[in-house]
Amino acid sequence: MSEIKINLSEKEMPRQWYNLNADMPGCLPPIGPDGKVISPDQLAAVFPMNLIEQEVSRERWIDIPEEILEILARWRPVPLRRAKYLEEYLKTPARIYYKDESVSPGGSHKPNTAVAQAWYNKKFGIKKLTTETGAGQWGTALAFACSLLGLECKVFMVRVSFDQKPMRKLMMHVWGAKCVASPSHETHFGKEVLKRMPDTPGSLGIAISEAIEEAVGDKSGQTRYSLGSVLNHVLLHQTIIGLEAKKQLKIAGEKKPDIVIGCAGGGSNFAGIAFPFVHDKINGEKIEIIPVESSSCPKMTRGIFAYDFGDMAGMTPLLAMYTLGHQFVPPPIHAGGLRYHGMAPMVSHGIEEGLLTPRSVDQVQCYESAMIWAKTEGFICAPETSHAIAVTIEEAKKAKEEGKEKVILFNYSGHGLMDLAGYEKYLTGKLERYSLPDGELKKSIKAIEGFPKAHTKKAHK
Amino acid sequence: MSEIKINLSEKEMPRQWYNLNADMPGCLPPIGPDGKVISPDQLAAVFPMNLIEQEVSRERWIDIPEEILEILARWRPVPLRRAKYLEEYLKTPARIYYKDESVSPGGSHKPNTAVAQAWYNKKFGIKKLTTETGAGQWGTALAFACSLLGLECKVFMVRVSFDQKPMRKLMMHVWGAKCVASPSHETHFGKEVLKRMPDTPGSLGIAISEAIEEAVGDKSGQTRYSLGSVLNHVLLHQTIIGLEAKKQLKIAGEKKPDIVIGCAGGGSNFAGIAFPFVHDKINGEKIEIIPVESSSCPKMTRGIFAYDFGDMAGMTPLLAMYTLGHQFVPPPIHAGGLRYHGMAPMVSHGIEEGLLTPRSVDQVQCYESAMIWAKTEGFICAPETSHAIAVTIEEAKKAKEEGKEKVILFNYSGHGLMDLAGYEKYLTGKLERYSLPDGELKKSIKAIEGFPKAHTKKAHK
Asked: What predicted TM-score, i.e. pTM, was given to this entire model?
């Protein structure tokens, strides 16, 4: 029996995060509607200054505070596993490894940054965090982190999910967070939306606006807003995934991966596993690095690289990113975490530099892959994660055709125990295949035509 | 930072199960209504002969087939963790360790025996397994095991749970099992019940009868029935938990636990962690071993030791066990896995021998304990598991009062992500406290007054 789980001891946990920003001199900063670069001070009402410093830092290695490591040690380091049974099923010469982020208290990678953000906010004297959540992964992660650190937490949850996924809301309650359906009557913006559209199912854009309004509206100055993906500091906190994986691949006797794969909604779990290997690629290693998106929300493969708002209401700074336009409303696919119109600036920049080669997959192919996974490896994956598995299977089949012993590494970003409805639809033949009509795509992108163009200095191409 | 996770490599997995039956010469065998001991042949229509042999075996160590180990290696060995944050919260000198069985594909300890049972059935030429499930933990575990081994699986799920817990049913579907609400129209017994009581919410007793009927009714002889607790061979398969824990405690530098704790419904997760330490106790070690039941279903602390049926319909052999009478209907507490009228014969015999000291806990105290757990250790436990945590907290407080550095080990039998309704009731002050009236208890026990008495030979008292 060969070892299929590679564990690390707590002593072997990475002591520093890797900051890709140090190796990406051309990455474009956020700007205001006037086209001027946003200064750190302009963000101070929304985020604490210590996180803003991380956001703009060009240091390559940033120390992880010991107290954060203490909290992460509740579930980290997480195992690197060999997907031996999938390999056997596919009869592939590829060796497939995955980082199992599903073992965290929230069941996904999200707590890695939730803990760090809550800790830095607390250190800065903040007493309360606000955030938005769609399907609920991020809201539960922040509720968990705030519970452990003794911070108040308020989550604006998109109404349609609030009603359809009561379990996620109950998890937040267990960890002491307040969770309200968005739009709510608790903010001016929420009230205004409800007046105009009393029956709206809500959206992430609306929820973000409510959360920011509540944070900046606290006259005591003790409330801040927290975001679960997209921003540099969020991606930074997730690099612990790839840094652990590197150590574990060595233990497994692998010099390096040939292919690294992660699903990408806002980009944080993908960045977490991939960035430490992007560093190696910049330094000459040959590695194919693939962020995988849903074909129904194809910003990386069919969108444009431009300055755009992070939210639908246009309240955030403009970010240089691959985008479908901030007015884009993706179809209701089951991978809620992939229904975001833009891609993290740092990931977008990596695509521009030719370091990353994005791919898109249809949800039917994803559920087919998830079913193969459940019947070989035995675990039920999250709908988002199934996108990474789908491309892993594609690549393992290719390795078979080519007769090559490739090493594939992917991020198992979360389990699917709270999201089984999509499986049932697939099993009963009711799962829809979505392909985005060209006309709709063009219309959505046209809406940001007048926005400042994003031109990076291509350093690595 | 001290290590709080103690991992084992796959190479260190136990190669043999421990059979307490070898050290319990007085344990009483099942009998028929005529008072005669049931012969192995009489069980052959229900179970395959290789499992019946295990059921009656007196061998102390039974080899675990390599192929079963291969399947278990998908998640085993599971970590032993130090509950350091709970210790700090309680300011106890006790060192608290727990086996984390929640990391299995089904989220509980149940797959340990599901895999073994499916494997032995397959080896015997069986093509299909039937079973019953209440809340759904056992049904999902058997569905998982059958999926991996290529067996057909049919689960009769108590109707009230079938309707209220659709997620568990969907998990079974993902693993390819057929799950029907019980009573169903698919068996004679089910039809008969539906005719008499068309609106019945169902019961485990009815579901067991349906599952057995379907198994023995298959004329091809290729279907058998599978049970998730109570029987000797089921408890045997779970001893891998305690055997792993022993190795891990050594690595943690502990000579032995002073106290071992597990919640007990039918008895299998408790037996899993406890029996290897019962062996040590028989051989002179001083260890307090505590099975914990719900105060609303108090067979061990308020029931009698007698021969009784395993199911409500009276279709099983008579088992010598602590029981409240097979007609007992427990109140609808949230720990569905603890709502069983009897206790495994082997555990019952251990109580008779004075080796085990059972305790009962009210569900309000259990949820209080679960909330402390979620806010210190960070994980959300199953309602059943909260009973073990409640007594762990009791014992840790006692150690503090006595100023003693005790080593406490308990079994974290499963996570609570599929069972959050109880938490919500607790948090909104709607959770009921149940105490069983004496009159009701007496009435239920009176119903088995004429049954054969159970008198063990007390070897170890």
From this structure: 0.95
